[in-house]
Amino acid sequence: MAGLNKSDMKNPVINWIDTRMPVFTLMQREYGTFPTPKNFNYFWNFGALAMIALMIMIATGIFLAMNYVPNTGLAFDSVQRIMRDVNYGWLLRYVHQNGASMFFIVVYIHIFRGLYYGSYKYPRELLWIIGVLLLLIMMATAFMGYVLPWGQMSYWGATVITNLFSAIPLVGESIVTWLWGGFSVDNPTLNRFFSLHYLLPFVLVGVVFLHIAALHITGSNNPLGIDVKGPQDTVPFHPYYTIKDSVGTCVFLLIFAILVFFFPNFLGDPNNFLPANPLQTPADIVPEWYFLPFYAILRSVPDKLGGVVMMFGSIAVLFVLPWLDTSPVRSARFRPIYRQLIFLLVISVIALGFVGAHKPEGIWVVIGRVATTYYFLHFLVILPILGKLERPRPLPESISRPVIGPGGSGGGPLPGRAPAKPMEKP
Amino acid sequence: MAESSASATVAQHGQPDIVSKRDFLKLTLGAGAAIGVCAIAWPFIDSMNPSRDVLALSSVEVDLTPITEGMGITVVWRGKPIFVRHLTTKEYDEAANTPLNQLIEPIPAADRVKPNHHQWIILIGICTHLGCIPLGNKPTDPRGEWGGWFCPCHGSQYDTVGRVRHGPAPLNLWLPPYAFESDTKIKIG
Q1: Is A426 strand, coil or helix?
Q2: How far apart are CA A303 and CA A289, in angstroms?
Q3: Where are the domains of chain B?
Q4: How far apart, in Å, are the Cα atoms of B46 and each of A7, A91, A294?
Q5: Which CATH superfamily is domain B54-188 in?
Q6: How far apart, in whole angstroms, are the C-alpha atoms of residue A286 and residue A281?
Q7: Chain A contact for B52, CB < 8 A?
Q8: Tens of pLDDT along A135-193?
């Protein structure tokens, strides 16, 4: 009987299970004693918050699916029935609808955290790539979910986005017909979108597991961006970060609740209160707010194929970011020029968001083109060059040094899987 | 966790002054969390209960004028078959004259019908054994030895007021809630 786990669990039942299937030991190692840099700020809450948002979306989604009918003749009315007749259906639906927005807010801040503190750099490149993959799956899920209520914006959003693929030379039209399962967005489209909208969140859970598995090999980055040197630099995940994450969770849920109970339709589009009408396009086709920057990039390029390529390119560029940024220093705290440019990037993305919400006329076209140009310039030109030219500020010797001074002791255990590097790179 | 709960146990056994502020906080937090989880779980659980539109379909009216003596019809109420049968005087009297000690679930025939309307028997047409629909509402159906209903699934037999006379069904056919709105009209539900 080789390989039985020697369990430290006190409870005899847990011990018996743990000896045969060491899930409790695993949880204890990965979420209990897991050595975590002791200098996290609240930006490090957002991974846990994203996980909570995903769980809320899955829970409410499963119960909504019990009452939703994926049929063009019945979908809109079934959603109205959920809102009016199903017990607490209004709550489930508003939580799900606004949960998508909360999920994206949290994930965008999580991505900003990664950009600002250089979490994508060695040795966390794969962790970052899995994260970008998560973003893509999440966007696909959100897009298909928005189609399901079968309102005007659902229908025309689906039409516009699926038509993007018609820009592909030669096979474009065939691909679009294949996506639709017909010659326009219709019942077969709605059925497959519902099927995939139910499937993809569970794919997301699986990929999140990979994301965390990769994270627990490299260990977390931290606001200083330097490696953990020893036990004096870490604290155990529990209770230090479970409690810190709990504080963030309370704030997150508070904002979420305000949105759900007081402004449930603030982020929605009034056009989606009208049932889908394939014979009449609404005056303005606007995606949900979380897609606006990408939509703006699409419209800023005066060429059909070019716009589509740039839009997908804006995500694709993130996949290769670990190799575009040539600076070995992670945290923007020690990169005086990068620190300013990252805010320029944030401003250009927010500007693109506003551009996406307006008709492409006059000043909005100009702003959209400038911001799009900066977005790609930032990643493709500035980051590779800046790493060679920028003179970083001196890095602290260790995480503990600025806090408890030289020769300080205390803190948590040494991370077993992420041994301290003997020398920090410049 | 294990250590702190152990110290709490020790504290409960005769040394109450050791109960710390932290123990108090843990217990109140735990109780608050339990209440919170229940409060969050309830909307999810309740959403699976019958919705308003389902409850709105909870009553049906039946016009009795077309049902001649000896005939029965089946109407649907809450998705279930309801037997509405116009008994002949002979059929009712047979049931009324049956001694109660011969019955599996002894209920007088008069309690199975409404006063002054004893020619009308209204039943939920679902066998109390395993939920099949008994035969016998149509005069051409087999009605069993007691002239009422016969369940084709496992051979249960009911008399003319729906009382079980032969197993395996353990109970009489259930009566739906109903009332006579006039002599020729009933409202079920």
Answers
A1: coil
A2: 24
A3: 2-46, 54-188
A4: 41, 11, 39
A5: Rieske [2Fe-2S] iron-sulphur domain (2.102.10.10)
A6: 12
A7: yes
A8: 999 999 999 999 999 999 999 999 999 999 999 999 999 999 999 999 999 999 999 99
Show Cβ contacts of residue A156 under 8 Å, excluding neighbours closer than 6 positions: A281, A282, A285
Mean pLDDT for chain B overall: 84
Q: Are A285 and A160 in contact (CB under 8 A)?
A: yes
How would you class B87 by CB atoms within 10 Å of its CB: exposed for 0-12, middle for 13-18, buried for 19 or more? buried
Summarize pLDDT for B57-67 with one digit per residue, the tens: 778 888 888 88
* Sheet arrangement for strand B120-124: B72-77, B80-86, B120-124
B6 vs A268, residue with greater confidence:
A268
- Identify which of B47, B52, B54 has the shortest CB distance to residue A92: B47
| Dihedral over Cα of A279, A282, A283, A285: its sign | negative
Task: Identify the bridge partners of residue B149 per DSSP, sorted by sequence position.
Answer: B158
Complex ipTM value = 0.81
- 3-state class of A272 per DSSP? helix
pTM of the model: 0.84
Distance, in Å, from the CA atom of B48 to the CA atom of A299, rounded to the nearest integer, reads 44
**Cβ pair A420, A357 in contact under 8 A:** no
CB A311 within 8 A of CB A165: no
Tell me, yes or no, if B44 comes closer than 8 A to chain A by beta carbon. Answer: yes
The number of helix segments (H) and strand segments (E) in chain B equals 4, 9
Query: What is the rounded CA–CA span in Å between residue A27 and residue A93?
Result: 33
Which residue in chain B is spatially nearest to A10 when comparing CA positions? Answer: B2
* Spatial distance between the Cα atoms of A144 and A414, rounded to a whole number of angstroms: 45
End-to-end CA distance of chain B: 55
Alpha carbons A160 and A287: distance in angstroms, whole number: 10
The answer to whether residue B48 neighbours chain A at the CB level (below 8 Å) is yes
Residue whose structure tokens are 């250009």:
A348
**φ, ψ at A385 (rounded to 5°):** -80, -40
Mutate to test the interface with A, among B29, B44, B57 (most CBs of A within 10 A): B44
